[in-house]
Design goal:
By secondary structure, the chain is α+β, with helices and mostly antiparallel strands. 47% of the residues lie in helices and 18% in strands. Among the domains are: 123-224, Roll (Chitinase A, domain 3), CATH 3.10.50; 228-330, Chitinase A, domain 3 (Roll); 345-458, no CATH class; 512-599, Chitinase A, domain 3 (Roll). The protein is built from 24 helices and 20 strands. Helix 3 (60-79) packs across helix 19 and helix 4 (86-103) runs antiparallel to helix 19 (463-485).
């Protein structure tokens, strides 16, 4: 579940252990009689000190003011009954249940599986396999037949060659022979993955079983996994109204020609890349790993570059046309960097069964439950054919009050187990005996009860869990409060928003801009010629044909309405109609023809709508907070505040 949030301040700064029981009884301030302790304030302040970006938030007085505002909002949310809403209670319960899964586990077994998974992420296996399908609930004879069949395939594969037998055996129904290519950890079900990684190159595994049936796997090769790449790129997208670069493919090819003519990649990226986030950095992107990007085409090209400095040919992705340059390549990240991600994956796949068994054994020992099943013949004697039809019910004379087992001092009765049998009768197979059904159901019931008991008592057993649940509880309240009081009032506040715009319209404007053509070249003599041609008012297409000849791109042109801060313009460029002087910019020579200067212009309400609504909401929230300070009396204990300041200063 994704945590709802509306500001870094409220949900990152103050939703950390905010409601934990205070050991110190020094009251820092009260909100209508509710005490807020110094220990909570200091803990939150210290824990978030490195997260704040506004230096004013490190000032204790400023931080205290924000903390008081946070507590006022919580007080108001509860006053309005947001903590009683069914949707709030339901979402908090769902979050608590999901969070508990991270705390109800056996960490030692999990850690071992995570380390094993990391080793497999470091390496890839190339393999083929043969599968004989058999259902998990198949009869003993069907299971034996499938096992004997896979043994025969293995014997034949050893004599005749695995690939030959694989192709002959495959029928797409009961037998599957597949070439799997390369894969790494988490790409296959865990038993299959384990067999593949434990089999040497060139060898065929012993038969093993998954939920699909019996397999043998032939390992062709093993190699190190692809790691991390750092690249820069030049990206070109189609721009409406740009007659010079209307065809993005032609433009990217022109840039590529300039690269082949020896011009600098970074300089060209700064001038012509349409990815404004990376253009100012010479096209440099953040490092990425295989599967991390949203463009497979881009990723594939990046990983084919072998040597630092290699540059790709132009290629197209779903974002536009690119040229990519390799800056760095690294192996798979260190274990500590990937540990949390791997742990989450381990808990989602078949490895979780190993973790579950370790947890059940641990809880049995913790709560004093032995491993011996009680006499279950009584329950087996109650079952009949209706159980397989999902219509079985407990008989009227059922011995409901007897105890099956206890967890700590909590008894679980025959009635509890009987109800579990009724609820789960759909899981039974007609191929199972009544004794097997009851025995399997008992193990499941006991394990489920152990986990549920621990989950119900987690707040008492684990302080970290209690703190995180309280963080989310408050965050959910604040989100609902702000959504209802501030954010979702745009429609009803339409007249007030318009009035706010009318009173502050001077804050919303388009800066001075220009309608211009920018010409850029690595050669000063050519740019001088372009300057003369532009001054003579020659058509731009004719100028391009004159200076870019014989398949070479000597000059790149950009035509657009732009601000003086445009990436292709030199710093502090003066907006003045006519043809400019020649500038040296990003290792190139640049001239600008300004056809028109568009003066600073106040935005209409519709043009500024987003900005206006945002500013209006801030102003409304500030006014609302002032009202809360009147509604709820806040009293600060100055003596405690002085102690807090002294402690923070000396830490």
């Amino acid at each position: 579940m994704k945590l709802k949030c509306y500001s870094v301040f409220l949900l990152t700064l103050f939703l950390l252990e905010g409601q934990a029981q205070s050991k110190s009884k020094d009251v820092l301030f009260t909100v209508s009689g509710d005490s807020i302790y110094t220990s909570e304030f200091i803990r939150v302040y210290n824990k978030n000190l490195n997260l704040v970006q506004d230096e004013s938030q490190k000032d204790v007085d400023e931080y205290l003011n924000m903390f008081i505002n946070y507590k006022l909002k919580l007080k108001e949310a509860k006053s309005l009954g947001f903590d009683k809403k069914p949707s709030y209670i339901r979402e908090l319960g769902t979050y608590r249940q999901q969070l508990a899964q991270n705390f109800v586990t056996d960490s030692n077994v999990t850690d071992a599986l995570v380390e094993e998974a990391y080793d497999r992420v470091l390496n890839e296996v190339e393999a083929s396999h043969i599968l004989v399908r058999v259902d998990q609930n198949a009869s003993v004879q069907d299971t034996l037949d499938a096992y004997n069949a896979i043994l025969k395939f293995r014997d034949s594969a050893i004599k005749e060659g695995f690939e030959t037998v694989r192709k002959e055996a495959h029928n797409g129904q009961t037998v599957f022979g597949e070439d799997l290519g390369y894969f790494s950890g988490f790409k296959m079900v865990y038993p299959f993955e384990t067999a593949a990684y434990n089999t040497k190159v060139g060898e065929i595994s012993q038969p093993f079983r998954t939920q699909f049936g019996y397999h043998i796997v032939y390992v062709k090769n093993k190699r190190k996994s692809r790691g991390e790449r750092t690249v820069a790129h030049i990206m070109v997208v189609d721009k409406n109204g740009d007659s010079i670069a209307a065809n993005s493919e032609i433009r990217i090819q022109d840039i590529y020609k300039k690269l082949n003519q020896g011009e600098d990649f970074e300089a060209l990226a700064k001038q012509f890349s349409d990815d404004t986030n990376s253009a100012s950095k010479g096209g440099l992107l953040s490092p990425f790993t295989s599967g991390q990007l949203s463009s497979q085409e881009f990723e594939d090209v990046a990983f084919t570059l072998d040597n630092i400095g290699d540059v790709s040919k132009p290629f197209k992705s779903n974002f536009g046309w690119h040229i990519v340059k390799l800056y760095d390549k690294k192996p798979v990240e260190p274990f500590q960097n990937l540990k949390s991600q791997l742990e989450a994956q381990v808990k989602r796949d078949d490895r979780s069964k190993i973790i579950d068994k370790a947890l059940f054994d641990k809880l049995k020992a913790k709560y004093g439950v032995n491993n011996h099943q009680p006499a279950l013949a009584y329950f087996g004697s109650l079952l009949n054919e209706s159980y397989f039809k999902r219509s079985w019910q407990l008989p009227a004379d059922f011995e409901r009050d007897k105890i099956v087992f206890k967890i700590n001092d909590k008894p679980f009765t025959y009635k509890d187990f009987g109800d579990y049998l009724v609820k789960n009768q759909s899981n039974a197979s007609v191929k199972e005996t009544y004794t097997d059904i009851v025995a399997k159901a008992y193990d499941s019931f006991l394990n489920t009860s152990l986990v549920q008991y621990q989950e119900a008592n987690l707040e008492n057993e684990n302080e970290d869990f209690a703190n995180i649940v309280n963080e989310y509880r408050d965050g959910l309240l604040l989100f609902d409060l702000m959504e209802n009081v501030i954010w979702n009032t745009t429609q009803s506040d339409s007249l007030e928003i318009q009035k706010f715009y009318d009173n502050h319209k001077e804050n919303y404007f388009f800066p001075e801009r220009m309608d211009a053509i920018i010409a850029s070249s690595a050669k000063q003599n050519i740019i001088k010629r372009v300057s003369q041609l532009l001054a003579s008012n020659m058509d731009l297409d004719d100028i391009k044909n004159l200076v870019n000849t014989d398949g070479e791109v000597q000059v790149l042109f950009t035509s657009d309405v732009m601000e003086a801060s445009h990436q292709a313009l030199p710093d502090n460029f003066e907006l003045k109609k006519g043809v400019s002087k020649i500038y040296k910019h990003h290792d190139a020579y640049v001239i600008v023809q300004i056809k028109d200067v568009l003066p600073k212009k106040i935005k209409t309400f519709e043009e500024a709508r987003g900005e206006v609504i945002s500013d209006y909401q801030v102003a409304k929230e500030n006014k609302w907070l002032e009202g809360l300070k009147t509604k709820y009396k806040v009293e600060v204990n100055q003596e405690s505040l002085n102690k807090v300041k002294s402690q923070i200063k000396n830490q």
